[in-house]
Write a structure and sequence with these properties.
CATH architecture: Orthogonal Bundle
Number of strands: 0
CATH superfamily: ACP-like
Radius of gyration: 13 Å
CATH class: Mainly Alpha
Number of helices: 6
Strand content: under 5%
Helix content: 55-70%
Structural class: mainly alpha
Oligomer: single chain
Shape: globular
Distance between the termini: 31 Å
Mean pLDDT: 92
Order of helices and strands: HHHHHH
CATH topology: Non-ribosomal Peptide Synthetase Peptidyl Carrier Protein, Chain A
Largest sheet: none
């Protein structure tokens, strides 16, 4: 029986971002799946500063604090791809 291919670190980070958007922003799975990697979250889904803090805290808690983000790093993250890169960098 063939094993399913393992996800890359980028795919794992992207899945985490999507789950976080579903949990903190109330998005549906289909909406999260349709977001392009370059989607600016405040423009595309209305993520404000409070939402961003909640999202940041969710990421940290969900990863058991293996991904800790400074407020400055979170402030600079504007797109789905920015969050993915942040998570990847923290997990290395």
């Amino acid at each position: 029986m063939a094993e399913a291919p393992k996800q890359t670190q980028k795919e794992t980070a992207l899945d985490l971002v999507k789950r976080g958007l579903i949990e903190t922003m109330g998005m549906r799975q289909e909406e999260a799946d349709e977001l392009p990697i370059d989607a600016v979250l405040d423009d595309r889904i209305g993520m404000d500063e409070l939402d961003k803090v909640e999202f940041q805290m969710w990421i940290e808690e969900e990863t058991g604090y293996s991904v800790e983000l400074s407020d400055e790093e979170a402030e600079l993250a504007k797109t789905v791809g920015d969050w993915v890169k942040l998570i990847e960098a923290k997990r290395k």
